[in-house]
Specification:
CATH class of the largest domain: Alpha Beta
Number of helices: 19
Helix content: 40-55%
Shape: globular
CATH topology of the largest domain: Endonuclease, Chain A
Structural class: alpha/beta
Largest sheet: 9 strands, mixed
Number of strands: 18
CATH architecture of the largest domain: 2-Layer Sandwich
Number of domains: 3
Distance between the termini: 40 Å
Length: 542
Amino acid sequence: MLLAKLFSKIFNRVTLTALAVLAQLAWLLSLFLGLAQYQIWFSALFTVLSALIALYIVRKDDNSAYKIGWIVIIGLVPLLGGLLYLFFGNKRPSKKMRRRIERTQAEHYAALAARPGVTDGLPPRMAATSRYLTEYGPYPPWQHTAVRYFSSGEAMFPQMLADMERAERFIFMEYFIISKGSMWNKMFDVLKRKAAAGVDVRVIYDDVGSVWAMPKNFAVELEKNHIHCLPFNPMVPVLAFVMNNRDHRKILVVDGNVGYTGGINIADEYVNRIERFGYWKDTGVRLEGDAVWNLTVTYLNLWNSFRKMDDNYAAFRPTIQGQTPTDGVVQPYTDSPLDEEPLAENVYLEILAQAERYVYIFTPYLIIDNEMTNALCLAAKRGVEVCIVTPAIPDKKLVFRLTRSYYATLLRAGVRIYEYTPGFIHAKSFVCDDRIAVVGSVNMDYRSLGTIFYYAPLRNAAARVVGPVRYDDVGSVNMDYRSLYLHFESAVLLMECSMIRELKQDALDTMRVSRPVALADCRQGFLGTLLDDLLRLLSPLL
């Protein structure tokens, strides 16, 4: 029995996939070595190929940091760089995945038709930001929606369970991480009872995000209990950049009337039932009313792209439509790598551009391109109080170092940076001038790494890594390359909602227990600076 358990742990799906990928890399290496006798001809061929690919990259309407990284690699290793780009340079999902999702979205495009007059009472620039989301999302704004803000996972979880218990028609769940433990067990008990009572229960989970933490035979167990299950972009043992396209969303919809999103996954650390990296600080929102429809349609579009069950979405509309008192304008939206529109980043840039008094930001990662750096610095230079809170205790040390490499530039421009000393901050949020805010899953970095290699602490920093390390998402809309360009993300834009003041107060309270970073803390020496520069150059590719 002990030997069987050991065998199953060693030869599981993850290790077998890793071995298959290593075998493919070994085959490519042997191919190059076998062709060594034709080195001159192949060198000339690949040099020309690499030059053509570099010109193609320059011409592409793409993120500049991403293009520069690839061009440098091709310049350093022209023999291999061009082939690497052909294998791994495509950020968009596979053609098969893209066609399925785009076809389903096109079929139900009319379901998200915007209603006239919703944003008439907003300031012109704010209304224009909303219009951008409507036209390029397309996710319309809504009134008649109550918003409740949660400053921690343990505060939100009991309300999630209570809403699930009241489900009469359907429960939809979509999460990057579903991990075995107390949180999942309590939710699973509710889901089983509701499915047995005839409620339509569906679960989408990201295959890579959950593979290390998921209960054994997870999908089989769900289907056995009449819970429909869909693993997103299953992990396969093939060299392919499309495996980077992950479902990083956190969405729960109950009966079409109540919806949740934010940074909170289904794992015990998110509700502080277990300790990982100190206290786990996260945020989320509960929506009740008309705006939940955006989340419902988003969920159904992804579900029916891969497991078609619904031709008509009318049965999933809110039954309380128009009944909830209006408190500002609420606009849930999602971003995806299906197009070349950096929707999530542009919303952040829009908030910074229209800020007059303050912008407070929570992000677990701060790995930003020139556009975002300039926007943050310019806002601070024109007198806006720009404050960013990042973790003091990292979950990924290499990303932690990369995050800190951006501090000096921002601090010199007047941006204030705080590191959350009680533990790890996984929240992703912007709040601005008491009038506009975003809460979601998008991280503020251009690359979320899973492997930890190196860590150079700031002076006098007392940060420690607590607990085991695993690949984690930390957030829903992170300011990172993965969140902004590679992942399927979710968030909600809040305009003139009374709840925005609660988010502001949470930011102020969080900064009070965080350590302010000074410019003197950022001195790394020549070798440290060189390493930081290299990491920043390669950050979109790592």
